[in-house]
Amino acid sequence: MKKIAIYSLLVSSLFVTSCSDDYLDTKPQSTINEEQLATSPAGLQALLDGIYTGFRTFGNTNGGNHEDYGHKSILAGLDMMSNDNVMTKSSWYSSWYNYTGIIQTNSRSLLPWNTYYLQIKSTNTIINTITKVGVNDQNKSVLGQAYALRALSYFMLARIYGPTYVGHTSDLCVPIYTTVGFEGKSRSSVGEVYSLIESDLLKSVDLLTGYTRPNREKVDKSVAQGFLAQVSLEMGKYSQAAQNANAARQGYALGTEADWRNGFYDLTKTTDAMWGAVITGDNTSFVASFFAHFDNTNNSGYAGGLGIYKLIDKRLYDNISATDYRKKAFVAPGGNPSYPALPAYANLKFIDPTVTDGDYIYLRASEMYYIEAEALARSGNEPQAKAVLAQITQARDASYTTSTNTGAALITEITTQKRIEMWGEGCAWFDMKRLGVGLNRVYTGTNHPTFGQLTYPANSNKFLWQIPQAEIDTNPNIVQNPN
């Protein structure tokens, strides 16, 4: 696609602002009723497959929004709200980067809400249908996947629209819907939402024991354990977090430098990829896609084509050891001869040589090492925490030696290494919120442009998205978050 086509799409999309009320329709869109569905393994599987499709679908909220392409877009957008990501021009994702998207009247506030409640609606249909007919060998794995996907959806919503778990279990979170109905509910407490999430995941792990998935687009036991590790860390259940993180990462290789630096565009070639979506010529949404926005080398996308480059924060780049091959995933201050047009600190981590068909990777086993290490450290087992941290860090930096840090310094080292490893993959902002780290992009030598130079203290209301206006207008039981 020529640059002029990109400009045309960009300009036209600014004037297309359709808003769908589909998320208010809690009746599942199925060609068969619940009674028929209960006796149809194929029907249940089709509904489950539709949920997976929904996680990578363009236009769940607004067909004119090129940030609206599902779960991967939301992970990417939330990282743009962290200290670690930089964008060079105000364009798509600027509403995330400058925090205007969190306001109730901004269409971005609706994007996560629609994306996940739409999938919750379908998971509820599967769960309630199988519960009614009874669990058997034909539907057991479908039920296990549905529980995991519902848990993930509520976990995403809880961390976006609600406060952190520790110290806020009585505070308002998001409404819980476990059945299909038309009445808008009030917001449940943080404790109630996390109780459902944890319960769903424990059921999922049990139901998926023995299940062999056909590909990494489907959730299996290891993925459910990965979700449970993330949730347990958020809840401060460190023993459970360490145990599940360790179990989840088994069987996934950390890979070589070539494996790590292959662009993260292929679900099958990324050795530690646990779960994602395969993008093909049949299902690609092209410029409304992750690589169009984050592959700085793609001249047909927004990043490379229009120079809306995505960079790593200078401070984090400086924290990467010179012998760590992950540093090569970003343009050095002196430039990169292979990409002379790119500015310093531009990301070379995400590169899609297919241009349009780069896969979406949602979860990697590498994250599990950092969850395990942090959980062990917080549980008082620092020697084992250091061993786990060394295992993954030495795989990225042959010169790394086991840490001598203790206490808070060890936690900082673990979380810093996690920020380096998982840059751009949806961990940074959630960890800032969980760990009580403020936003600070104003510092001497900052590489954040003026429109992104923001500072918000830890635990600011800015880390709490407002409930979207569309929900406020149609659900009288909703109480709004502060601005």
Provide the residue-averaged pLDDT: 92
**3D shape:** globular
Q: Percent range for helical residues?
A: 40-55%
- What order do the helices and strands follow? HHHHEHHHHHHHEHHEHEHHHHEEH
Structural class: mainly alpha
CATH class descriptor name: Mainly Alpha
CATH architecture: Alpha Horseshoe
Biggest sheet: strand arrangement: 1-3
**Structural domain count:** 1
Radius of gyration: 22 Å
Measured distance between first and last alpha carbons: 41 Å
Contiguous low-pLDDT stretches (5 residues minimum) are 1-31
The beta-strand count equals 6
Instruction: Report the major sheet.
Output: 2 strands, antiparallel
Q: CATH fold name, please? A: Serine Threonine Protein Phosphatase 5, Tetratricopeptide repeat
Number of helices: 19
The percentage of residues in β strands lies in under 5%
Question: What does this molecule look like?
Answer:
The chain has 483 residues and is mostly helical. It has a single domain (3-26, 47-474), classed as Serine Threonine Protein Phosphatase 5, Tetratricopeptide repeat (Alpha Horseshoe), CATH 1.25.40. Helices cover 44% and strands 4% of the residues. It has helices at residues 3-14, 34-38, 41-54, 71-79, 94-97, 110-133, 140-161, 190-207, 221-235, 238-249, 257-260, 290-294, 302-306, 314-318, 365-378, 382-396, 407-421, 428-435, 469-474, and strands spanning 85-87, 273-277, 310-312, 360-364, 439-440, 455-456. Residues 1-31 have low confidence and may be disordered.
